[in-house]
Design a protein that fits this description.
Chloramphenicol acetyltransferase; three-stranded antiparallel sheet; alpha+beta; single chain; seven-stranded mixed sheet; Chloramphenicol Acetyltransferase
């Protein structure tokens, strides 16, 4: 990686929640223990402006999508939640995107992660290099195991458009981080659209929080001046 794009390696900090003062404690405990619940949402995003900006800049689409998702996720503590080793909830000060890279020869994918930074140029450089480095990976986690704990997942299914996508997560596995799945672009009335599926643990976030995240994502991709910065 060029020196000017090198990222400062800083360990993420996990801050336990004060349950006595936390407004969502009752909802958290209900959906974590008494009625464990995940929910899925699939939305269509207008990426016309973003796609044009990416094409004009010579950037790569997938790292750009990843950065946009990571940026809105990191704005909100409910999407940076996790449990510590004792099962107590807390919030990471920053979460990094973990994402898939497909190996067409093996018809398998690898899961890799990149450190998030609000500097799009720096992030794009690192993510693009990682995608190139691990595109022929033959293992699930080629960067080594265990994965960093402060990650959330993004995957891409660029071969098909979908109107619904749901992951089945085993009961009892309290995966509080959001999971995103990107679908194939399609054209609609002169606009380029992209399906995006969200898998959310109800203990961490309600429909209000997920809708806010989606609307902020719509805003950031509708005004993609940051692509050329």
């Amino acid at each position: 990686m060029p020196a000017e794009h090198a990222l400062l390696v800083v360990m993420a900090t996990f801050e336990p929640l004060d349950l006595q003062q936390w407004p969502r404690r009752e909802w958290f405990e209900h959906y974590l223990d008494r009625c464990p619940t995940y929910y899925s949402m699939t939305v269509d995003l207008d990426i016309t402006n973003l796609r044009a900006a990416v094409d004009a800049s010579g950037r790569k689409t997938y790292p750009t999508q990843i950065w946009a998702l990571a940026t809105v996720v990191n704005r909100h503590p409910e999407f940076r939640m996790a449990l510590d080793d004792q099962g107590n909830p807390g919030v990471w000060d920053v979460v990094d995107p973990a994402f898939t890279v497909f190996n067409p020869d093996r018809e398998t994918f690898a899961g890799i992660s990149a450190r998030y930074t609000p500097d799009f140029d720096a992030f794009h450089s690192e993510a693009a290099e990682l995608l190139s480095e691990y595109r022929n990976a033959s293992t699930l986690f080629p960067q080594g195991a265990p994965r960093p704990r402060n990650v959330f997942d993004i995957s891409s299914i660029p071969w098909t458009r979908f109107t619904g996508f749901t992951l089945t997560i085993a009961p009892g596995w309290a995966h509080l981080a959001p999971i995103f799945t990107i679908g194939k672009f399609y054209e609609q009335e002169g606009r380029t659209m992209m399906p995006l599926a969200l898998q959310i643990h109800h203990a961490a976030a309600d429909g209000y929080h997920s809708t806010r995240l989606v609307e902020e994502l719509r805003q950031i991709i509708a005004d993609p001046d940051w692509v050329n910065c």
